[in-house]
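Supplementary Methods, section 5.1.

A reviewer requested that the exact input to the structure prediction be made available. We therefore reproduce it here, unchanged from the version used in the analyses.
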Amino acid sequence: MSLLHEAHPDVDAPSVGGTEDGARQQAIKQIERRRHFHIEAGVSAVLLVLLVATWATSEYRNAGGWPTHGFSQSSSIPHVWNYWIVYPVVVISLILAGRAWSVYGHIPISEREIQREIEREAGRS
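The structure derived from this sequence is encoded token-by-token as follows.
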């Protein structure tokens, strides 16, 4: 691989190095990122299911039944469930969405972008 690619791992290796091996390495890296994301998504889904099941079980016991009178911050009202579950679900979902964006929204730097930036910087001097 070229020195430029080692310094900037997002640089598209085939356009910088001009080799098929660079394209292959970049493709392997992206496949690994996607596989790791799928594992993270699966673990997050299992975690959320367990968390919601634990919450529902504890709230059912604490409130003495289903939430027929709605939701509240207080846990001591009969038939009213505490809605704290919203916070960890939102946080885990936002983290997972950020990871999805970093994996699927990742666009390597192209040689054309590098040349354009070099020309722009040269124009300033």
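The chain has a mean pLDDT of 81. These observations are discussed further in the main text.
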